[in-house]
């Protein structure tokens, strides 16, 4: 199966979407954020799951695009809440326009996402929208937890995993489940694909945390240590806080809230040194591996010929930048 | 038909709704805004339209409640955009908590509103959600137009009517249409009830504009002249601007943007005097009457026995505070 070809089909669908025209202030930001691109990983997962059951995915294109519109709605609103100036290297909607515009345009995007699901066959529509709504609420819960954690002193690893599960993973899981359901897959397959997606999502987010500290700067495309500089409670930081001795804890606490640009490099080095002492890199890699193995277990349990799983398996490996 | 009894049934349904529990920061604001009450006019219209076709409205209660949840979602987000400090005499969500909370809780409310529609029979679900989504997008368009008009110098009467149609009227129309569709009413009846609701909605909003200037202060419950003091482009103001001679126009422009509390009374008197000279009250009453007559025409066209229309007719008269 050719991912490039699926991507082309998907982009054609995304490019022909009509969100509305007037008032322009409402619809222009939607076209803007959707034009910023991105990996389109969620709708691609919808299509890949669908392809496992039927090569004809024509009926799945619009629901797949709906997931991408929903995802971009969450980005538009999250960017307001996080006061993010940039999205994919471009000004965020609330920066380019204003917060009110981003609120209202986002609202319409959520409505359009639902609307784009309405071509689904009547016998499947209720079930799909139930799962979509559950997922949508969970994504909001994840964003709320993320904001709560910023203000809290103590966050457990377990709470952190729950937060990234809700904020990031469940939408990946839903994407795969959606593709399976639309092609009439057995319930147990749809559920295993959902679990596969959830676990890949968690592994992917942990990997994101890891790369922020240990990634190749040129390859990663972000400033190394950005999470450390902004005192983000990542998996690495929370693990370090749990395991630090008094001296290491003191080092972490001493650097907390120090945002001076002059000492930025020193801060990253000091915290990374603590991580190194505590073997945080290895521990994080083990966790990533744990969730990735969980994902593979669920993919294995899906009742289709192994060759039909190859593309999705390959994509997961690619997302993890792994060979096997 | 007993409206009080329907209201009781409706309030029972609204009181048993479960929006979610954790994180509390996400769900508490939803319970808060829903507890502030209000006339619950939209879900009541759903039930009344449904009752025209079947006395058993059990299956309509949850979709009716969904419309109220949707309406309160729009209030929560509009209040952020309008920087409103109070809602029904209580602090708005973004004041009591903060803007981020109001954004995210509102998002979940929109999701829950859709979710509450999902019990609708499969053969009707797609159609209902199509109309609901169309209406939801229109309400956002109306809010955007309202915000645009604040910044614009010139707004035509026609544009104003379009704005209030989208922002306020279409949700009333949809409410009636929803009740009819759920009880298997003929398409033409559903459409006439929709038109009835839209027109009542426009008339109701124009009456709101009128009462702000010419209302009985004690009865109306708001400060008389509030729209004048905030330079709101109401139907009265836009009509006056269109018809004013040079001197009257100068009076209006002289007072514009003057927000000094000391001269508030003088401002209201001066603008009201221009309205009086131009016979704006009478003209507004004529417009209200025009839309109300349109509404009644559509109600008449509905193919049910006249006694089945009595309650809805009575409620419309009551909303207009009219005898016939």
TrEMBL record, chains A, B:
A single BP term in Gene Ontology: isoprenoid biosynthetic process
Gene3D superfamilies registered for this protein in UniProt: Farnesyl Diphosphate Synthase
InterPro entries noted in UniProt: Isoprenoid_synthase_dom_sf, Polyprenyl_synt, Polyprenyl_synt_CS
Taxonomic superkingdom: Bacteria
Pfam families per record: polyprenyl_synt (PF00348)
UniProt keyword annotations, A-Z: Magnesium, Metal-binding, Transferase
Cofactor (UniProt): Mg(2+)
GO MF terms held by the record: metal ion binding; prenyltransferase activity
Similarity-based family: Belongs to the FPP/GGPP synthase family.
UniProt name for this protein: Geranylgeranyl diphosphate synthase, type II
């Amino acid at each position: 199966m050719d991912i490039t070809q699926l991507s082309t089909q998907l982009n054609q669908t995304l490019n022909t979407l009509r969100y509305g025209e007037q008032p322009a202030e409402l619809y222009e930001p939607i076209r803007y954020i959707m034009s910023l691109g991105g990996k389109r990983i969620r709708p691609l997962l919808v299509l890949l799951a669908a392809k496992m059951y039927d090569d004809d995915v024509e009926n799945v294109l619009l629901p797949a695009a709906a997931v991408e519109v929903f995802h971009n709605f969450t980005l538009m609103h999250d960017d307001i809440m996080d006061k993010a100036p940039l999205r994919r290297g471009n000004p965020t909607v609330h920066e380019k326009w204003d917060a009110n515009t981003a609120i209202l345009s986002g609202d319409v995007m959520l409505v359009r996402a639902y609307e784009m699901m309405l071509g689904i066959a009547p016998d499947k529509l209720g079930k799909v929208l139930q799962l979509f709504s559950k997922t949508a609420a969970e994504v909001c819960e994840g964003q709320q937890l993320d904001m709560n954690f910023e203000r809290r002193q103590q966050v457990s690893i377990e709470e952190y995993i729950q937060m990234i599960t809700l904020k990031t993973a469940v939408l990946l899981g839903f994407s795969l489940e959606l593709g399976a359901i639309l092609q009439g897959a057995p319930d147990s397959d749809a559920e295993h694909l959902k679990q596969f997606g959830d676990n890949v999502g968690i592994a992917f987010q942990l990997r994101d945390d890891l790369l922020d500290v240990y990634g190749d700067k040129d390859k990663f495309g972000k400033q190394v240590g950005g999470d450390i500089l902004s005192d983000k409670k990542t998996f690495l930081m929370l693990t370090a806080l749990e395991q630090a001795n008094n001296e290491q804890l003191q080092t972490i606490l001493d650097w907390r809230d120090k945002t001076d640009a002059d000492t930025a490099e020193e801060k990253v080095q000091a915290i990374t040194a603590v991580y190194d002492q505590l073997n945080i890199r290895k521990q994080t890699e083990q966790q990533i591996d744990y969730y990735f193995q969980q994902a593979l277990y669920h993919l294995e349990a899906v009742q289709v010929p192994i060759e039909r799983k190859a593309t999705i398996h390959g994509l997961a490996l690619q997302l993890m930048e792994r060979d096997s």
